[in-house]
Automatic annotation (TrEMBL):
Organism expressing this protein natively: Elsinoe australis
Domain of life, per lineage: Eukaryota
Residue span of region Disordered: 1-36
Name the record gives this protein: Uncharacterized protein
Biased composition (Acidic residues): 1-10
Length: 239
């Protein structure tokens, strides 16, 4: 059947056609590809010639292997639920759950230690994983730390799947690899005072809602600058 001309459409058909996205997603034509976060991650992978994506996760609490397993299970469950909204199971298959854990090194590790190790890991990981440079990949710009507080928030404080965690009580720590304390030695102001002023604003890491980690936060940090979405702990940032 030939397409109807504009004159042949009913008012209802005109309204429905007008509501169609101008640039529909190949995964879900009912939404624009710009808002489909599975499409967004695919574009990131193509841009950087990469085949894997996802935050590296540092385990920094070792009191309970059972609780750690529960945390990972809930993270995977929430991630699957989120990708189902975008018909993005194919992109989900490319998500690399890279867990860095070593009790002798990372138990109760500070953000600074995790950041330092992550920077070292990033020196060789892109070629090993992707066979390509890091490009602008978020995977090599930010990492996740799960300390005792984060683990408790997910396992004990947040509503477990399949219940909806409407208050987003569960969180993980998102660490900016590039952050550093900005001390201008040419400034006559005392360095300790300047450090304190910066500490009041940006600590180089923040708590983000774990159930929004994938794909929402992965896409958000790709689209925005750190100061635009930063929330100082203990506030939990929500996408």
């Amino acid at each position: 059947m030939a397409d109807l001309t504009e004159d042949q459409l009913t008012d209802f058909e005109r309204r429905m056609r007008a509501r169609r996205p101008q640039n529909p997603s190949p995964r879900d034509p009912s939404m624009s590809t710009e808002v489909n976060q599975a499409d967004d991650i695919e574009r990131q992978l193509v841009r950087d010639s990469h085949r894997a994506w996802g935050f590296v996760i540092y385990r920094c609490t070792y009191d309970s292997d059972d609780q750690w397993a529960t945390f990972l299970d809930r993270l995977r469950t929430r991630t699957r639920e989120s990708f189902a909204e975008y018909n993005g199971e194919d992109i989900l298959d490319l998500l690399a759950y890279t867990i860095i854990e070593d009790r002798s090194v990372f138990e109760d590790a500070t953000v600074e230690l995790v950041r330092e190790h992550f920077g070292q890991w990033c020196e060789t990981a892109p070629q090993q994983e992707q066979g390509a440079p890091p490009g602008r990949s978020i995977r090599y710009s930010y990492c996740i730390q799960v300390d005792a507080s984060a683990l408790k928030s997910v396992v004990h404080d947040a509503q477990p799947p399949p219940q909806f965690d409407s208050q987003h009580k569960g969180f993980v720590n998102l660490i900016d690899r590039a952050w550093q304390l900005n001390l201008d030695e040419s400034d006559s102001e005392d360095s300790s005072e300047r450090a304190g002023q910066q500490d009041q604003q940006d600590t180089g890491w923040m708590r983000v809602a774990y159930d929004q980690l994938y794909p929402a936060w992965y896409c958000l940090v790709n689209q925005m600058q750190w100061p635009d979405f930063y929330r100082r702990p203990p506030e939990i940032a929500r996408a």
